[in-house]
Amino acid sequence: THFGFKQVDKAEKASMVAGVFHSVAAKYDIMNDLMSMGVHRIWKRFTIDCSGVRAGHKVLDLAGGTGDLAAKFSKLVGENGQVVLADINNAMLQVGREKLRNKGIVGNLEYVQANAEMLPFPDNHFDVITIAFGLRNVTDKDKALASMYRVLKPGGRLLVLEFSKPQNEMLTKAYDLYSFHLLPKMGQLVANDSESYQYLAESIRMHPDQETLKGMMETAGFEQTSFHNLTGGIVALHRGFKF
Ligand code: SAM
């Protein structure tokens, strides 16, 4: 593989992911804006528009990190609703909590340290679950999707926002150049950490493409699954329902 990443076993992957997010937490938001040239905001806006979240809903923002989606959901669900921002990484959760509190977003928002593979919530609990740029970091994705299915209410929906497969060759080439060459350099310059950003590029390449992820969601039990490509398929939003 690129950059000499060897095949790693499950425990190794989990601790590598923990290390990556621990070291990027403080610079995460600024790096997001830089690396995506601000476009991640548009991808997240689209996700919120597709979420169907309304007043009174219970929403789980899984792998929620620094809380961009959770902050928006907190406003949409209102005081009778509930938003849970769950992430496996305490450093990311702390940065998120600090940021949202400073914005005055409190009250209907809870922070839970949890692994997507073993969600500590009751069955049939949430109206909507989102996982944005999180699934690719999860070691056992099938297990995580099954866990999401379990805690989703019948009638509820899952939205997976994730890097995917660019849909044309020119774009693929430009994107490879960008993510394998420019991105680690930016990581080095801004966050003094090129390795984490090499991991990022690598994990994006290994992630299942649009059709594969759709199939995985169906295997976990989701119905009426579909996806929508964003920015030429660099990112895709997958949706599925539990009935
Ligand atoms: N959702 C946020 C966003 O879109 O800005 C954060 C995305 S960040 C790229 C990925 C997040 O996934 C990190 O905060 C990381 O700690 C979290 N994560 C990785 N593996 C996880 C797991 N198994 N369970 C829950 N969260 C996980």
UniProtKB/TrEMBL annotation:
Its EC number is 2.1.1.163, 2.1.1.201. It is an enzyme of class 2 (transferase). Coiled coil: none annotated. The keyword Phosphoprotein does not apply. It comes from the Bacteria. GO terms for biological process: aerobic respiration; menaquinone biosynthetic process; methylation. Keywords: Menaquinone biosynthesis, Methyltransferase, S-adenosyl-L-methionine, Transferase, Ubiquinone, Ubiquinone biosynthesis. Pathway: Quinol/quinone metabolism; menaquinone biosynthesis; menaquinol from 1,4-dihydroxy-2-naphthoate: step 2/2; Cofactor biosynthesis; ubiquinone biosynthesis. S-adenosyl-L-methionine binds at T66, D87, N115, A116. InterPro entries: SAM-dependent_MTases_sf, UbiE/COQ5_MeTrFase, UbiE/COQ5_MeTrFase_CS. It catalyses: a 2-demethylmenaquinol + S-adenosyl-L-methionine = a menaquinol + S-adenosyl-L-homocysteine + H(+); a 2-methoxy-6-(all-trans-polyprenyl)benzene-1,4-diol + S-adenosyl-L-methionine = a 5-methoxy-2-methyl-3-(all-trans-polyprenyl)benzene-1,4-diol + S-adenosyl-L-homocysteine + H(+). GO terms for molecular function: 2-methoxy-6-polyprenyl-1,4-benzoquinol methyltransferase activity; demethylmenaquinone methyltransferase activity. Methyltransferase required for the conversion of demethylmenaquinol (DMKH2) to menaquinol (MKH2) and the conversion of 2-polyprenyl-6-methoxy-1,4-benzoquinol (DDMQH2) to 2-polyprenyl-3-methyl-6-methoxy-1,4-benzoquinol (DMQH2). Belongs to the class I-like SAM-binding methyltransferase superfamily. MenG/UbiE family. This is Ubiquinone/menaquinone biosynthesis C-methyltransferase UbiE.
